[in-house]
Design a protein that fits this description.
With about 425 residues, the chain is an alpha+beta fold. The protein has helices at about 15-25, 50-60, 60-65, 100-115, 185-190, 245-250, 255-265, 270-275, 320-340, 345-375, 375-390, 390-400, 415-420; strands spanning about 5-10, 30-35, 45-50, 70-75, 75-80, 85-90, 95-100, 120, 125-130, 135-145, 165-175, 190-195, 200-210, 215-220, 225-230, 235-245, 280, 285-290, 295, 300, 305, 310. The longest helix has 29 residues, at about 345-375. It binds flavin-adenine dinucleotide.
Length: about 425
């Protein structure tokens, strides 16, 4: 592979597939590489907010996603610690979000990137990159099936049989880092930052026979954190418990004990117990954490970070897919302009950084405020009681979390006054 690509997109989740599709559709030579082979599972609550539907349509992939027969949800119910339930609807039932497995969604988006003209490499992990004086990146890819070479007994260095990894070198003018929360690209550039005060983990599984409402998802606030339940197509449901291991003074176990840990959390709350009374697992549980992370900046010379690689806080509000797609649209526009001007320096890419901050700043502030409320059960109950008395406010919150309305609306004195008076 000796040609110089206009861009290499590292990571083929929603952000990477969208970036590759948008760049290739604009006539650019794009390589998309992902360490995984698709379809692959991705730990997620699998709520797709309504805003993403417009983005799927723009990408030309909505009919294929509809063909997967996703469940439609009209909003989200939050069950406060004291039991008060608030159902926030996106648009009185007129607008819906979708519920479907990431296993199916992500493969559909990846296939679309290929159809738009991007070259797609599955099972290849980006393992290094260097920007030369000519401004071109040399990117090292390692086949995900390859055996890593280690100096030691039996290795090539010790004169024994060598495990020769499958490697490839790729040249590209720009890198789009779309490699998720643990972004190699962000780490390699020294941009990745932890969120030491928010270290939640998630354990998620698919189940059959969960007794949950058919037309909306539920977020049940519990003593350990919360549990999200999302009915999916085919009688499946996604059940995801989110915990703070430090607050529980207990690490998340691996292997066979993960199932016991999960079952204990389900047994902890009467509603999750009831919902799961007849549930049967449909596949294995997956755990991940700490979930929150951020990048100090989302641009560097020749590089843009998109999706979770640029930052992720908490899935409580369904933050994720729609934001990843919206950020990617902004990144692609700035990158296309920079490519046509032949200037890919960090300053030329800066409009993406400022655009991101303006678009997502209030939303991220809201996520932090909500986590602060959840950490205080009496306050959470108080807010829930008030939202129950003013359905418009509950709906507004749902529209903001569904990315249909700017989160800044919730920081206006009018909203706070209405909440207090409700
Ligand atoms: C527990 C949990 C629940 C969530 N629930 C929701 C929800 O209900 N709704 C919602 O909208 N969002 C949710 N999110 C967030 C959502 O999953 C992410 O925001 C979304 O997946 C971001 O997409 P992405 O493309 O940036 O990254 P990802 O989807 O993580 O994709 C990254 C890709 O990069 C690949 N990769 C990684 N490293 C390399 C490398 N070195 N080389 C090549 N490839 C690499 C990976 O294989 C992966 O395919 C949730 C997140 C968590 C953790």
């Amino acid at each position: 592979m000796s040609a110089v690509f206009d861009a290499i997109v590292i990571g083929g989740g929603p952000a990477g597939s969208a970036a590759a599709a948008l760049l290739a559709r604009a006539g650019r030579e794009v390589l998309l590489c992902d360490a995984a082979r698709f379809p692959r599972h991705k730990i997620c609550g699998e709520f797709v907010p309504p805003a993403a539907l417009r983005q799927f349509a723009d990408l030309g992939v909505l009919p294929e996603i509809e063909a997967l027969r996703p469940r439609r949800h009209v909003g989200m119910a939050v069950i406060a610690p004291g039991g008060a339930e608030v159902l926030g609807r996106y648009d009185h039932g007129a607008a819906c979000g979708l519920s479907l497995r990431r296993y199916d969604l992500d493969e559909t988006l990846l296939r679309n990137a290929g159809r738009c003209g991007a070259r797609v490499l599955q099972g290849w992990r980006a393992a290094g990159f260097e920007r030369g004086r000519d401004g071109i990146f040399d990117v090292e890819l390692v086949s995900a099936g390859a055996v890593p070479v280690r100096a030691g007994p039996g290795s090539a260095a010790a004169g024994g049989p060598a495990a020769v990894p499958d490697r490839a070198a790729v040249r590209a003018r720009a890198i789009v880092g779309a490699d998720g929360r643990n972004s190699f690209v962000a780490r390699r550039l020294g941009l990745r930052r932890a969120e030491p005060r928010h270290r939640k983990w998630a354990v998620m599984g698919h189940f059959l026979g969960v007794e949950s409402p058919a037309d909306h998802g539920e977020m049940i606030v519990t003593s350990y954190g919360y549990c999200g339940i999302n009915p999916l197509p085919g009688g499946l449901a996604n059940v995801c418990v989110v915990v703070d291991p430090a607050a529980m003074r207990r690490p998340i176990p691996g292997g066979a004990r993960l199932r016991d840990f999960f079952q204990e959390r389900i047994a902890d709350h009467p509603l999750t117990r009831r919902r799961m009374a007849r549930a049967e697992p449909a596949g294995s549980l997956r755990a991940t954490g700490p979930m929150a992370c951020r990048a100090a900046r989302s641009v560097a010379d020749g590089v843009l970070l998109v999706g979770d690689a640029a930052g992720f806080y908490d899935p409580f509000t369904g933050e994720g897919i729609a934001m990843a797609l919206r950020g990617t649209e902004m990144a692609a526009e700035v990158l296309l302009e920079a490519l046509s001007r032949g200037d890919l320096g960090a300053r030329a890419l800066e409009p993406y950084e400022t655009g991101r901050r303006a678009a997502f700043g209030p939303r991220l502030r809201l996520d932090r405020v909500l986590q602060g409320v959840l950490a205080r059960p009496r306050l959470a109950d108080w807010v829930a009681r008030r939202l129950r008395r003013d359905q418009d406010l509950a709906d507004l919150l749902a529209r903001v979390t569904g990315d249909m309305e700017d989160a800044a609306a919730l920081f206006r004195p009018r909203f706070l006054a209405r909440l207090l008076l409700a």
